[in-house]
Amino acid sequence: MQIDIITVVPGLLEGPFSHSILKRAEEKGLAKVKVHNLRDYATNKQKQVDDYAFGGGAGMVMMVEPVARCIEALKSHRDYDEIIYMTPDGETLDQQMANSLSLKGNLMILCGHYKGVDERIRQKYITREISIGDFVLSGGELAAAVVADAVIRLIPGVLNDETSALTDSFQDGLLAPPIYTRPAEYEGMKVPDVLLSGHNEKIANWRFEESVRRTKERRPDLLEGKDFEADEKRK
Ligand code: ADE
């Protein structure tokens, strides 16, 4: 997979992809992130990429021409499964969306900046608009990094332990259960006996029950329409 990110602040995206899991994904040839500076596609000498909003009001608007030029240049090199625009009025990112994006070949992500991009870019090129939550960031860059991270870690082979993405919170519609490592006792706080028992079935049942309990407590909305009691009885 290649993810091409278009931004007016490339510096904001220099860090995240050269560390840890995302760096390893690139080294293994599984996912590559390329950052493109919108200013390189400006059409005038001043390298202008934003202009005043028609109709007035505070805040600048990303101009059609540089964005269109950049998107067309990228499209001439590869086919994209999705051209994504990061914006607070998009569809909210969740694990299901990350799962489906992780199955794609190439993604292009346009980061909104200033007041956002001229509507005609959205009409002509954008296939998907994504928000990372009901709050406003100063630009789409950090949101694009969040999407890229959530997607890349799901590509088979990126995580060392293939099963570890499968046991994430949300992957089965539940929050993850509590986890522990050594020591078995810390300041009088003991790791639950069952986890030390070596009994795999009991451990799996305990984890499932804890997941359901935690989800009921913290995110009851995730359980609507689900009958986990029936699941438990069947076991
Ligand atoms: N740009 C500004 N705020 C954003 C958000 N919440 N999600 C995606 N892009 C954004």
What this model shows, in words?
By secondary structure, this protein is of the alpha/beta class. It has two domains: 2-152, SPOUT methyltransferase, trefoil knot domain (Alpha/beta knot), CATH 3.40.1280; 185-234, no CATH class. The chain contains eight helices and nine strands. The chain has a five-stranded parallel beta sheet with strand order 2-1-6-5-7. The longest helix is centred in the last third of the chain and has 19 residues, at 200-218. The mean pLDDT is 94. The chain binds adenine (ADE). Adenine binds at residues 86-88, 112, 131-133, 135-137, 140, 143.
| Inertia-based shape | elongated
CATH architecture identity of the largest domain: 3-Layer(aba) Sandwich
The level 1 CATH classification of the largest domain is: Alpha Beta
Alpha-carbon distance between the two ends: 39 Å
Class from secondary-structure proportions? alpha/beta
Secondary structure tally, helices: 8
The description of the largest β-sheet is: 5 strands, parallel
Subunit arrangement of the protein:
single chain
Summed up, the domain count is: 2
Radius of gyration: 22 Å
Any idea of the CATH topology of the largest domain?
Answer: Alpha/beta knot
Output the strand order for the largest sheet. Answer: 2-1-6-5-7
CATH level-4 homologous superfamily of the largest domain: SPOUT methyltransferase, trefoil knot domain
Mean pLDDT: 94
**H/E element sequence:** EHEEEHEHEHEHEEHHH
Question: Which residue ranges are poorly predicted, with pLDDT under 50 across at least 5 consecutive positions?
Answer: none
Strand-residue proportion: 15-25%
Heteromolecules bound = adenine
